[in-house]
Amino acid sequence: MLNKKKLFLFDIDGTIAVDNTIYDGTFELIEHINSIGGKAVYITNNSTKSRQDYIEKFKKWNIETDESNFITASFAACKYLKENHMEDKIFVCGTKSFVKELRDYGLNVTEENEDDIKCVIVGFDNEFTYQKGALTCEILLTKDVTYLATNPDLCCPTAFGSIPDCGAICNLLECAVKKQPYYVGKPNREIVDICREMTGFSIDETIVVGDRLYTDIACGINAGVETAVVFTGEAKKEDLKDTEFKPTYEFENIREFLNAVKS
């Protein structure tokens, strides 16, 4: 039940905000979560920004956060790579911010085609170029490497509609390399598990809130927690008829979700 929830795992783009605009009801929802001794954690698949970037973004909205409030796909990638490829040379197709976050985590990364590359990781890259894509294809086709990506999202919500996300970039590459990566972000349940381990809240006290069925809602389902979809991003009400990823709850927007939580 919603009134038992303490750990709220929110997607960002299309759920609580779009671009630099925060949705109505978000401030009051965060205040309510704090008032009941809960915690809001933002589990975004957007790997164009580091956790520190998000702290600065939320500060502009007058929302005080720290690194414990953000479990991003880029952070999940850092954790996965440290556990599985700490000694390997890793080629990165991603933003400068993503590359810096990987380096700051102590990983041996490159943006060039080097002989000893053992792993390739692709992120949501709003700095993507054809040349960068061609270099990624060359490495995937000519070297025996592990192929990873941050998230399978096909599009990212914006104020004017949407733009291609990491999944779309990987589909573009697949046309040439005939390979799909292993995705470390949502819907991988590990992000929810990290949040629960970090905070100590139980499965019954946890809920995932998002606007995308095949990543946000699927992530919650995979982790065994309740889920809520809002129709302010990618998912539409009619999508619920045919999806295999059925949310526990559905709401028009965050304001409606807040009212249900408080009641």
Describe, in plain words, how this protein is organized in 3D.
The protein has 263 residues and is an alpha/beta fold. 37% of the residues lie in helices and 20% in strands. The chain has nine helices and 14 strands.
Q: How would you summarize what this structure contains?
A:
With 263 residues, this protein is α/β, with parallel strands linked by helices.
Largest sheet descriptor: 5 strands, parallel
> For the largest beta sheet, what order do the strands appear in spatially?
4-1-12-13-14
Work out the radius of gyration. Answer: 18 Å
How helical, in percent, are the residues? 25-40%
- Distance from N terminus to C terminus (CA atoms, Å) equals 11 Å
Number of helices: 9
H/E order of the elements?
EEEHEHHEHEEHEEEHEHEHEEH
Q: Roughly what is the average pLDDT, rounded to an integer?
A: 95
Strand content: 15-25%
Assign the structural class, choosing from mainly alpha, mainly beta, alpha/beta, alpha+beta, or little secondary structure.
alpha/beta
Shape: globular
The stretches of 5 or more residues where confidence is low (pLDDT under 50) are none
The number of E-state strands comes to 14
